[in-house]
Design goal:
mainly alpha
């Protein structure tokens, strides 16, 4: 089938099943986001320690990622996907029972094992099923399904925090169980997964092989920046900024996170499939520039309006950035070979940012203020932008779409 025909064809129904599952996962994650650092602070710890709880899950995810890439190839994406969801559900439910800061840290961290199982297998599944000419669109839909869940999740989580700090964890655990049941039932009937087996004539892509690709290396840089600014610092510091610098109720932290998700979702709707038409590089560069500006402005003034506007801008940047960089990685892997190690390597780069970002920015906030912490986080995105700009002089790699 030609690329033009692939763009006109309907997406496989298995893709929509995975999108439904990611929506449920994101709704639960958004519910927990406003509660996690505030719950940690309830045990009498400081800002840095509270921010470190956000890093606990990606720490275990990072350590387990090399194993998960190999397990996906051996066990299969579907089994790993469902098992990962259940592990995170158990971990999240245990967080609700924590009676001390160390317990919360351990329970949250153990969810990282399930998280990497889910993330790598979901990423592999959706790009294996996506038509080659529509990877950017599918990546945008995948990201958008997370963010649609995230639009309702943080606001609901902020309300639940006001009622009981433990309630969001129980709701998230229930959402994950529902996601496992729904997606597991749908994928059990899939014939598309059996048709899309690895091509024995194509050598599986190892992490070392992927690292030879300039596009993959650039994606690692932007993945680290995404983990730092979008997944780590935003979730860890915005609730603390609202409570400490603005003196507002936790509900406003949930609203700020929701505004970010609205900006992200609006940009996704406006630019669906843009990187398929214009190339990955210009879209990633525009996204990184917008994320850098929005993140740096989050704490420029202790003002609620500034926070909400900057959150929307940063969200719009993420809406440009994430689908395009994900599609760039999928281009390097292709749909005819296993790329578990390369996909787990990309996830590891994001996890490094999500681990180092909240801890480093939390320490900067305690010493120099929240404005400096958000400014440094914006600079990390700007450095990744430079890496992608340098990619422009490189020749296109065989078998990939233009960067």
């Amino acid at each position: 089938m030609s690329v033009a025909a692939e763009r006109r064809a309907a997406l496989p129904w298995e893709v929509w099943a995975l999108l439904a599952g990611s929506f449920l996962v994101a709704a639960g994650y958004g519910i927990v986001a406003p509660a996690l650092p505030v719950f940690a602070r309830s045990f009498g710890v400081g800002v840095t320690a509270a921010a470190a709880v956000v890093s606990a899950l990606p720490v275990l995810r990072l350590l387990f990622a090399p194993v998960s890439g190999r397990l996906v190839a051996r066990v299969g994406e579907r089994s790993m996907y469902l098992t990962g969801l259940l592990v995170v559900a158990a971990s999240t439910g245990a967080c609700a029972l924590a009676t001390s800061y160390p317990q919360l840290l351990v329970y949250r961290g153990l969810g990282g094992i399930g998280s990497t199982m889910f993330t790598v297998s979901a990423f592999s599944l959706i790009f294996r099923l996506a038509p080659e000419g529509r990877r950017g669109q599918v990546s945008g839909l995948f990201t958008g399904s997370f963010l649609l869940g995230g639009i309702s999740g943080p606001a609901l989580g902020g309300g639940l925090v006001a009622w009981d700090l433990r309630a969001p964890f129980l709701v998230y655990a229930a959402a994950l169980v529902v996601a496992t049941a729904v997606v597991g039932t749908l994928l059990a009937r899939s014939t598309g997964l059996r048709r899309r087996r690895d091509d024995p004539a194509v050598t599986p892509l190892t992490l070392l092989g992927a690292l030879r690709s300039p596009t993959y290396r650039a994606a690692l840089a932007s993945g680290l920046a995404t983990g730092w600014a979008v997944q780590g610092v935003r979730v860890a510091l915005v609730p603390l900024f609202v409570a400490v610098a603005l003196g507002r109720e936790p509900l406003w932290a949930g609203i700020a996170l929701t505004v970010f998700a609205v900006g992200d979702g609006a940009m996704l709707l406006a630019t669906s499939g843009l990187s398929d038409r214009r190339g990955r590089r210009p879209v990633v560069v525009a996204g990184l520039a917008t994320v850098a500006v929005g993140t740096a402005c989050l704490g420029v003034l202790p003002d609620l309006v500034v926070l909400l506007v900057a959150s929307f801008v940063a969200g719009a940047g993420a809406g440009l950035l994430q689908p395009a960089q994900g599609a760039a990685v999928a281009d390097v892997v292709g749909s005819r070979r296993s790329g578990g190690p390369a996909l787990s390597g990309f996830q590891m780069a994001s996890d490094v940012g999500a681990i180092v970002g909240p801890i480093g920015a939390g320490a900067i906030a305690e010493r120099f203020g929240f404005g400096a912490a958000f400014g440094v986080s914006g600079a990390v995105a700007a450095l990744a932008l430079v890496v992608w700009l340098l990619l422009g002089s490189r020749p296109r790699e065989p078998g990939t779409r233009p960067a």
